[in-house]
Design a protein that fits this description.
GO molecular function, one term: DNA binding
Number of strands: 8
Largest sheet: 4 strands, antiparallel
Keywords: Cytoplasm, DNA-binding, Transcription, Transcription regulation
Family: Belongs to the TACO1 family. YeeN subfamily.
Main location: cytoplasm
Order of helices and strands: HHHHEEHEEHEEHEHE
Strand order of the largest sheet: 3-1-2-8
Structural class: alpha+beta
Helix content: 40-55%
CATH architecture of the largest domain: 2-Layer Sandwich
Shape: globular
CATH topology of the largest domain: Alpha-Beta Plaits
Subcellular location: Cytoplasm
Distance between the termini: 15 Å
Strand content: 15-25%
Length: 238
């Protein structure tokens, strides 16, 4: 799974370089999570998960608190959660998750970006069957043996635990996100380099240089769309 971890790091690096855009996207996601359930992260697991993710992207507490307070304040903004699936150059596959208050606008923008960059939208299910929903945690300062031991003590059986460069990466079932997080916190681990629910490709492809350039333009253009929250793909980024 090493290459998949590299792709997660590339995505984080890209987002870290565009902080204002990242803050806006997390603000929307936090608002929706707080609005759909209890605005208290102690009782709203979805909200707690988004807050954990936001922390790994260094989103300031003021941004997090403002989004939650907006939900508490009775804002009438309503967002639809949408997922698009499509194909890029050279057999690449992409999943695009969006939050929008205008479905027609969002689908038109996503379709236009695919078309402009050598891709096309597919129907629901045309791509997602090649991806697995996965909870991913990154922990610094521990060995894989240490992490495995504490997970075993908590009676949690995860998919995989790997050492990647200076981090230990844990891959788990998506419904294990909160139990894994709690096991780490009980062991005194409260800071994560990654804490995500993501879609990992079952296999990855390498693109020729010209195809990679075109794919990265497509990826960047999708992530630049205001309504797009996450983009997952099956391309090995160099």
């Amino acid at each position: 799974m090493g290459r998949k971890w590299n792709n997660i790091k590339e995505k984080k690096a890209s987002k870290d370089a565009n902080t204002s855009r990242v803050y806006a996207k997390f603000g929307r996601e936090l608002y929706v999570a707080a609005k759909q359930g209890d605005p208290d992260p102690e009782t709203n697991q979805t909200l707690r998960m988004v807050i954990e993710r936001a922390k790994t992207y260094s989103v300031p507490k003021t941004i997090i608190d403002r989004a939650i307070e907006k939900a508490k304040g009775g804002s009438e903004e309503v967002y639809d959660e949408l997922r698009y699936e499509g194909f890029g150059p050279n057999g690449s596959m992409l999943i695009v998750d969006a939050l929008t208050n205008n479905v027609n606008r969002t689908v038109a923008e996503v379709r236009a970006v695919f078309k402009k960059n050598g891709g096309n939208l597919g129907v629901s299910g045309s791509v997602s069957f090649m991806f697995d929903a996965t909870a991913v945690f990154g922990i610094d300062g521990k060995s894989a043996d240490d992490v495995l031991e504490l997970l075993m003590e908590a009676d949690i059986d995860v998919r995989d635990v790997m050492e990647e460069e200076e981090s230990v990466i844990v891959y788990a079932e998506p419904d294990q996100f909160h139990s894994v997080q709690e096991a780490f916190k009980q062991a005194g681990i409260s800071e994560f380099s990654v804490a995500e629910l993501t879609m990992l490709p079952q296999s990855e492809i390498s693109l020729p240089e010209d195809g990679q350039v075109q794919f990265e333009k497509l990826l960047d253009a999708l992530e630049d769309l205001e309504d797009v929250q996450q983009v997952y793909h099956n391309v090995e980024l160099s």
